Amino acid sequence: MKATAKAHTNIALIKYWGKRNEELILPTNNSLSITLDGFHTITNVSFKEELTNDVFYLNDSFVQGEQADRVTKFLNLVRDLAGRYVFAEVKSVNAVPTAAGFASSASGFAALAAASTKAVGLNLSDEQLSRLTRQGSGSACRSIYGGFAEWQKGEKEDGSDSFAVPVVAKDHWDIRVAAVVLSSKMKKVSSRAGMKRTVETSPFFKGWVESIPADLQSIKEGILERDFTKVGEIAEANCLKMHATTLGASPPFTYWLDTTVTVMQTVKQLRDSGIPAYFTIDAGPNVKVLYLPEYEVQIKQALQSIQGVADVKLSRVGQGITYLGDEDFA
Ligand code: DP6
Question: Known NCBIfam families for this protein (predicted)?
Answer without folding.
Answer: mevDPdecarb
